[in-house]
Amino acid sequence: MLPDPVSPYTDLRPFIVHGHDHVLRDDLRNLLIELGTQSPIVLDGQANVGQTIIEKFESESDRCNLAVVLITPDDQVVMPGGAEYASARPNVWIELGYFLAKFGRKSGRIILVYKKPAQIPSDLQGILYIDATLGLTGLVRDRLEGELNGIVTTGEIPESHSAMFPAGADYSVRGRLFIVPDPT
Predict the structure, then answer these.
(1) The pTM is what?
(2) Terminal Cα distance for the chain, rounded
(3) Contacts of 8 (CB under 8 A, 6+ apart)
(4) What CATH architecture does domain 14-154 belong to?
(5) 31 falls in which pLDDT band (50, 70, 90)?
């Protein structure tokens, strides 16, 4: 897939947060490139250069200005009493929290892509997402493109977290979280 040469998304550098669904991760990476973003950052595709995993994550996350978080049913959790549910990998929740702190929930720079039957923690209930249970269909593509449009029309694209928030400055939050609900 070739990137769109006239894409409005060429300043977007996505970071893909993922668990064990590498097919969906790779399909998403290819779709983002096709839509014209810069090559998405996928942590396990980057050189380690002697860093611990958290150092590598922090370093690579500084290079992005958008996070696409894949919430896929990778783990089966058994509650006391025997009730079970599917959940994303723990790293997905940790990295989502990191990006919520980095960009802010209302920034529109975090896009959740959800695959059933993963359970979303109660603290995140009410946050909207793109449902990719059936794969990256045309509807998912359209909704993802709508999210990218929302990001590029809300203002300047920051180069990195440190460029976004210089030390000693005062800040206010503006914008909103652009995550699209499942139409069903």
Answers:
(1) 0.80
(2) 30
(3) 36, 148, 149, 152
(4) 3-Layer(aba) Sandwich (3.40)
(5) very high
- At 182, phi and psi to the nearest 5? -65, 130
Q: Are 57 and 67 in contact (CB under 8 A)?
A: no
Q: Residue written as tokens 């995550």?
A: 179
- Segments making up each domain of the chain, as ranges: 14-154
134-164: per-residue pLDDT in tens? 999 999 999 999 999 999 887 544 443 334 4
